[in-house]
């Protein structure tokens, strides 16, 4: 069983790996032997995550990229190829949010959220999956979705729409890439203390969330590591693709 989750010799690219959730998942991959490329728009934050990984005995390097820019992602992919020779695991964890009411929503804001949460992940999948195929690598793509993707949440219209779209992208690409030995899955986190949801967590909303979360608490970022490492491991999840894996404290099982 100890070798089932061994990622030694694999390179993981963590886009959005400089965020709260992305960095925790990237650290989990590193702890199981993967070399991890931390990719983010804020290079300074990415380098801080690298320092934490290397301090724990892992191997990592920071790369700058804007997920909404194809040229930026291609440049990062080329730099990662030079560093490690390719990509075996793609973790797509960028994200942004807004609480603007629907009738007040401007299309500039809508486009910005969709560019990061959906278009950016589509671009990353295009660029890195193409490299996996060209290099004849069996790979794993892990997209980070949200509980709002299946049951839209109040106050986060565009975010919910983008994550619903991401679920569809995940399942479509699972079919598209299966003949190439590339698995595509998504993790659906519940409520975690990430930057993009703190600004909408007032006392009333927290009470509502707890009423709908059987475990009656928020998740800790490290609790996403298990699902991430499992989906990344070719041995542990070799027959898993197109799956939407909930890590939500039971939120998705609640009705009234």
Automatic annotation (TrEMBL):
**Known SUPFAM superfamilies for this protein?**
NAD(P)-binding Rossmann-fold domains
Q: Which Pfam families match?
A: adh_short_C2 (PF13561)
- Print the keywords alphabetically: Oxidoreductase
Please provide the Gene Ontology terms (biological process) for this protein.
carbohydrate metabolic process
InterPro entries the record matches: NAD(P)-bd_dom_sf, SDR_fam
What molecular functions are annotated in GO for this chain? oxidoreductase activity, acting on the CH-OH group of donors, NAD or NADP as acceptor
Please report which protein family the annotation says this sequence is part of: Belongs to the short-chain dehydrogenases/reductases (SDR) family.
Q: NCBIfam families of this UniProt entry? A: PRK08277.1 (NF006132)
- Name the UniProt record assigns to this protein: Gluconate 5-dehydrogenase
């Amino acid at each position: 069983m100890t070798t089932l989750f061994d990622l030694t010799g694999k390179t993981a690219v963590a886009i959005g790996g400089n965020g709260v959730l992305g960095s925790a998942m990237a650290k989990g991959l590193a702890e199981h032997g993967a070399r991890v490329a931390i990719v983010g728009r804020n290079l300074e934050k990415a380098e801080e995550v690298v320092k934490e990984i290397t301090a724990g005995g892992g191997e990592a390097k920071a790369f700058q990229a804007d997920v909404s820019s194809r040229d930026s992602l291609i440049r990062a992919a080329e730099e990662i190829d030079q560093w490690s020779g390719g990509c075996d695991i793609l973790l797509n964890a960028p994200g942004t949010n807004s609480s603007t009411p629907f009738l007040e929503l401007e299309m500039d804001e809508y486009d910005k959220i969709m560019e990061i949460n959906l278009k950016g992940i589509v671009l990353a999948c295009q660029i890195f999956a193409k490299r996996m195929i060209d290099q004849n690598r069996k790979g794993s793509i892990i997209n980070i979705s949200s509980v709002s993707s299946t049951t839209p949440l109040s106050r986060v219209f565009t975010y919910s729409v983008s994550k619903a779209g991401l679920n569809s992208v995940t399942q479509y690409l699972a079919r598209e890439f299966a003949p190439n030995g590339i698995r595509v899955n998504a993790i659906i986190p519940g409520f975690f203390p990430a930057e993009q949801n703190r600004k909408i967590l007032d006392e009333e909303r927290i009470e509502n969330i707890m009423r709908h979360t059987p475990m009656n608490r928020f998740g800790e970022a490290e609790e996403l590591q298990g699902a991430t490492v499992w989906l990344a491991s070719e041995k542990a999840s070799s027959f898993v693709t197109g799956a939407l894996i909930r890590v939500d404290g039971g939120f998705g099982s609640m009705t009234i």
